[in-house]
Amino acid sequence: MVSDAQVLEEHPPIRVGVLFSGRQSPGGHNVIWGTYDAMKVQNPHNVLLGFVGGTEGLFAKKTLEITDDVLLSYKNQGGFDLLGRTVDQIRTTEQVNAAMSTCCDLSLDGLIIIGGVTSNSDAAQLAETFATHNCKTKVIGVPVTLSGDLKNQFVETTVGFDTVCKVNSQLISNICLDAVSAGKYYYFVRLMGGKASHVAFECALQSHPNMVILGEEVALSKLTLMEITNKICEGVEARAAQGKYHGVLLIPEGLIESIPEMYALIQEINNLHSNNVPEDEIPSQLSPWAAALFKFLPPFIRRELVLHQESDNSAQLSQIDTEQLLAHLVEAEMNKRTKEGNYYKGRKFSSVCHFFGSQARGSLPSNFDCNYAYVLGHICVQIVAKGLNGYMATVTNLKDSINKWRCAAVPLTAMMSVRRHLRGPGAVPIGRPVIHPSPIDLKAESYGVLREKASSFLLDDFYRTPGGIQFEGSGADTKPITLTIEGQDYLGDIEILQDYLEKVRIILKPGCSREILKAAISSMASVNDVLKVMSAPLNAELPLYHFS
């Protein structure tokens, strides 16, 4: 049996702070639970402090000590209500100084920031500042966001994504059955998920709606608003030819920014916001072409476009009713085609609009998200114990069973890049290192599966009913379809590469034949040339996304 003295000698007591930053995402509480359990196993005298009110609580030193009694009602529960959240930003000099002051005053050995791309970008900047000022607190990021856009070679998916997609897919499948039962409505469903379309993509694979418009497809093809409208109308006509006057269409929250002319308009509005132009004066200060587009849009969209920006200085995508805009334009076009009688001679087009956001993000987390979050909490404690600063807790090989998961700590800077942007006519390009939202890879196998089934989804009413989240039984441990299709395991692949390099080293030891040596040099030169070309950066980027 290990004595208390041995524990204290091997693992001196540590103090760690934790906070939620970003949209609430199912499973977040289990990160805290996993952290707490790991800390108490390491040393019973360790202290875990939660910051009440997210980043504002951090600045104000408003803490709650995490104990068994405090955690009791929050284990495996949705929401972020144990601690709450506020502005979700640690960026300005005043905010960074307040955070550092709090960590120093509370003598924290570690600060765990639970959030998405913006929060983890702030965590990286905070870690650098702490190191520069000799603050002993180590900053750790945890990938928790419902949108699933914090995705790269190190992060296969985020905590909350599985749950949100399962809940949304159940709601979508209910709507699909309602649509086919009534036989007279087209449902336009917008899904919360930020700039990227991961949630809409996964939900399409799970529920099989008639149509899904991915922002990445629109950005790549540079489709205009009217071209998207016409494509939807063509789908409506194709279904009408089979006597079907109903359907379900999925729209990602970030679609509006993927449409070239809308992206440019939003950028102009954001620039005016940055120059402190009041909301009611923005329309009068737009450029002529932007003013013309703004005037073309329905009044409700105009009001939503000029709303104040998010904490990361972007448009409030959740407040822009893109589904209603498309329904409005499609209905107008279908009425026109019906009147002309050249293309469409079916029933009058009728639409119903929905936005799924809060319905899913407060849900009970799935088994996958519960386990994933709990493991990440344990990894955070190991990162603090090793004295690592500016790292993210990650797990790879997630598609396999839990005992085959690979735990790791990855520098936040390995996920960051600088993209230079023009903030206005004649402006100097500016940029700062951040973790960018990862778009859907249109070359991935999972995307190929969706494209292969697109025609069947459109015409055959091939609706799938996944039902509610299961916590026991055969369906309890299902994982996101995109995760199971895509074979990532980046760290596992690195180990395979290292194994091959070790075999080469053994073969090429001093004394090997000249023929073997020449063959190795020729092969390595070819490999070097290929990798050099593949790793070269692209010369240009699309307005929003960077495709490899």
Automatic annotation (TrEMBL):
<dbReference type="GO" id="GO:0009749">
    <property type="term" value="P:response to glucose"/>
</dbReference>
<dbReference type="InterPro" id="IPR035966">
    <property type="entry name" value="PKF_sf"/>
</dbReference>
<dbReference type="GO" id="GO:0005829">
    <property type="term" value="C:cytosol"/>
</dbReference>
<dbReference type="GO" id="GO:0047334">
    <property type="term" value="F:diphosphate-fructose-6-phosphate 1-phosphotransferase activity"/>
</dbReference>
<keyword id="KW-0021">Allosteric enzyme</keyword>
<keyword id="KW-0479">Metal-binding</keyword>
<dbReference type="InterPro" id="IPR000023">
    <property type="entry name" value="Phosphofructokinase_dom"/>
</dbReference>
<dbReference type="Pfam" id="PF00365">
    <property type="entry name" value="PFK"/>
</dbReference>
<protein>
    <recommendedName>
        <fullName>Phosphofructokinase domain-containing protein</fullName>
    </recommendedName>
</protein>
<dbReference type="GO" id="GO:0003872">
    <property type="term" value="F:6-phosphofructokinase activity"/>
</dbReference>
<keyword id="KW-0460">Magnesium</keyword>
<feature type="domain" description="Phosphofructokinase">
    <location>
        <begin position="15"/>
        <end position="383"/>
    </location>
</feature>
<keyword id="KW-0963">Cytoplasm</keyword>
<dbReference type="GO" id="GO:0046872">
    <property type="term" value="F:metal ion binding"/>
</dbReference>
<dbReference type="GO" id="GO:0005524">
    <property type="term" value="F:ATP binding"/>
</dbReference>
<keyword id="KW-0808">Transferase</keyword>
<keyword id="KW-0418">Kinase</keyword>
<dbReference type="GO" id="GO:0015979">
    <property type="term" value="P:photosynthesis"/>
</dbReference>
<keyword id="KW-0324">Glycolysis</keyword>
<dbReference type="InterPro" id="IPR011183">
    <property type="entry name" value="PfpB_PPi_PFK"/>
</dbReference>
